[in-house]
């Protein structure tokens, strides 16, 4: 077991029996390391802010303050990308460094497969300046992660409506609107849809085929790819 895994396991062991303590010797035997190694690990946890305390006495040991900790939380790839979008909006603010650290912790707690999916999803988001605050329907917001063909009702700039089946490819956040880049089956080419003009969304049962068109995507202005820090 490497040190990172052991630190996590130490916290989980102490959480499981909290508020009762575990002695350094017991923990050393449990994780097959020396007592000195356990003491160094506990010190590292305390310095990182983990509420681990030492109880003196013959029956004492280390214990975890359960009221000041949270159990492991499983974040989905979409939730991780949502955090990354929020972090982008803090660029230049006094809170950017703290938010970046929080995102790194979030990614570190995720399963490797979910991290890979999150990075793939983040790579399909482009941001130009500060993205708009306007909300979009949940079915539309999940368009990239569900990977299904969508049937939409869309109004062009003149107000003329049309119904189309599209294969979502990417989101682009501009200062005023969000745009959905997709393969349009009606036009048989890539089209960009302003999300506030999409009147309705139906998720079909058909899985969208893989299309690697992101390298060809040209976005005006100073566009930046979203990333998981």
UniProtKB/TrEMBL annotation:
Residue intervals of the Helix-turn-helix type domain: 6-62
Specify the species: Paractinoplanes tereljensis
May I ask which residue range the UniProt record assigns to the signal sequence?
none
Name of the protein described by the UniProt record: Transcriptional regulator
Q: Which InterPro entries match?
A: CBASS_pafABC_assoc_protein (IPR051534), HTH_11 (IPR013196), WH-like_DNA-bd_sf (IPR036388), WH_DNA-bd_sf (IPR036390), WYL_dom (IPR026881)
WYL domain mapped to chain residues: 138-202
Q: Which Pfam families match?
A: HTH_11, WYL
């Amino acid at each position: 077991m490497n040190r990172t895994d052991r630190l996590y396991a130490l916290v989980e062991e102490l959480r499981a029996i909290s508020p009762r303590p575990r002695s350094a010797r017991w923990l050393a035997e449990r994780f097959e390391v020396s007592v000195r190694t356990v003491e160094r690990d506990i010190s590292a946890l305390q310095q990182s802010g983990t509420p681990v305390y030492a109880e003196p006495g013959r029956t004492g040991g280390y214990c975890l303050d359960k009221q000041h900790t949270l159990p492991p939380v499983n974040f989905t790839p979409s939730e991780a990308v949502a955090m990354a979008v929020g972090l982008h909006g803090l660029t230049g603010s006094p809170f950017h460094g703290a938010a970046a650290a929080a995102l790194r912790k979030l990614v570190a707690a995720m399963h490797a497969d979910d991290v890979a999916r999150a990075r793939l999803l983040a790579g399909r988001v482009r941001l130009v300046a500060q993205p708009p605050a306007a909300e979009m329907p949940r079915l539309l917001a999940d368009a990239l992660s569900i990977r299904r063909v969508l049937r939409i009702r869309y109004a062009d700039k003149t107000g003329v409506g049309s119904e189309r089946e599209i294969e979502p490819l990417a989101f682009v956040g501009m200062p005023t609107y969000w745009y959905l880049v997709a393969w349009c089956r009606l036009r048989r080419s890539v089209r960009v849809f302003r999300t506030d003009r999409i009147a309705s969304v139906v998720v079909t049962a058909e899985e969208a085929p893989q299309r690697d068109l992101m390298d060809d995507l040209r976005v005006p202005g100073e566009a930046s790819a979203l990333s998981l820090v």
